[in-house]
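Researcher: Please translate sequence to structure tokens.
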Amino acid sequence: MDQDRFLALALKNPVNVVIIDELARLALPDAWLVSGCLVQTAWNVLTGRTVDHGIADYDVFYFDPDTSWEAEDAVIRTLHARFGHLGVKVETRNQARVHLWYPGKHGLPYPPLTCSTDGIDRFLTQNTQVGVRRARDGFEVYAPHGFDDIAGLIARSNPGPNFSAANYAEKAARWKALWPEITVIPAE
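Model: Translation complete:
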């Protein structure tokens, strides 16, 4: 699968399109729609399911040097108001402040990031390391591991500083129940 095919699949979900377009209009710094909502839409199209089957939430990353909770909360509330009519859960996180709360919530280290794609690089699975945003001439896609695992319906761990084998196993089990066709590669 190449980038164009991936985009064609991911953009079949109208919620993905609405979110990507609205992020561009809002001009949030370094804003991306990321992860499962993109990959799972592609899986749904490839397996003949409805485009939103199994999608728990739609993740938005942005990077604002203002690491105050008040600033992030204001963005969360703005996006909640903009996307409330969609009837889906949108999780919005300022990647500049993840290191402030992640260790307390997950008990794992999380060094500070320098941009939103750094956050994508730290995802639990390689197959969900993907982000999409509007660019002047269409779309920009960030996918450091490409699209082969997405096309092949493969879940593969992404070892890194904040990796948890237990969290990976839990996520993979959820996915396997929703998409029995996927192949789950055990964590090393």
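Researcher: Any highlights?
Model: The two ends are 25 Å apart (CA to CA).
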